[in-house]
Design goal:
- The chain is α/β, with parallel strands linked by helices and 216 residues long.
- Helix content is 26%, strand content 15%.
- It has 6 helices and 7 strands.
- α3 runs parallel beside α6.
- Keywords: Methyltransferase, Transferase.
- It comes from Candidatus Planktophila vernalis.
- Pfam families: SpoU_methylase.
């Protein structure tokens, strides 16, 4: 029985098993999308099997050809650690873009390098973000449990829109709330006042996907 802590079984995360595939057997597949270094040494990235051994540029180009009309925005005034997880989920739904509103720097650890595969915009103020959305005819839908919010579970979301989330704890800023066309909240049934932004983001993105992506 092998030792579970040997280098052969431990990957990039301290306690996570190695993912991906090893070196590709020869003859190697041909095409501009393939990375010779990955073919030679193996591909340990967290990508779909379809993208194994592809360069980052080739993956991004393929994703760009089928981006969805949904975009995601997160307010970042206190360096929210949840932003990385929201970005990772946004990548999973292949959104058109992610918007960081406030501080430019954000903790990328939770994104698990998925920010390489989508476009991340930065807007220093809520006003700048609102102007960008107006110029791009993008309705802003706020997700937060504040007075006046409607139930997300019964909401019909536009196919083309941006979902705006506040930061952990404080929630959406007053300025953020003011620019939203509508606010929705996620029903909760326990004692906690709110769930974290990454969980709310995943629920809201899936709710949008149920309406616009899944075959009925």
């Amino acid at each position: 029985m092998s030792n579970p802590t040997t280098p052969a079984s431990i990957g990039p995360g301290e306690f996570f098993p190695v993912v991906g595939v090893g070196p590709h057997e020869k003859p190697w597949p041909e095409g501009p999308q393939f990375d010779p270094e990955l073919l030679l040494n193996g591909d340990r990235r967290n990508v779909l099997d379809h993208y194994r051994y592809w360069t980052v540029e080739a993956i991004v180009a393929d994703l760009d050809s089928k981006r969805h009309k949904l975009q995601i925005a997160i307010e970042n005034w206190q360096h929210d650690l949840n932003i990385g997880s929201v970005v990772r989920t946004a990548n999973a739904f292949n959104v058109s873009g992610v918007h960081i509103v406030g501080k430019r720097d954000w903790n990328k650890r939770g994104a698990m390098v998925t920010d390489r595969y989508l476009t991340v915009h930065h807007h220093p103020t809520v006003e700048d973000f609102a102007v960008w959305c107006k110029e791009n005819e993008l309705p802003i839908i706020g997700i937060d449990n504040v007075p006046g919010s409607k139930q997300l579970e019964s909401a019909q979301l536009p196919e083309k829109c941006v979902l705006l989330f506040g930061q952990e704890g404080a929630g959406m800023s007053d300025e953020g709330i003011a620019i939203c066309e509508v606010l929705y909240e996620i029903n909760q049934y326990g004692s906690t006042r709110s769930m974290n932004a990454s969980a709310a983001g995943a629920i809201a993105m899936y709710h949008w996907a149920l309406q616009h992506l899944l075959v009925r």
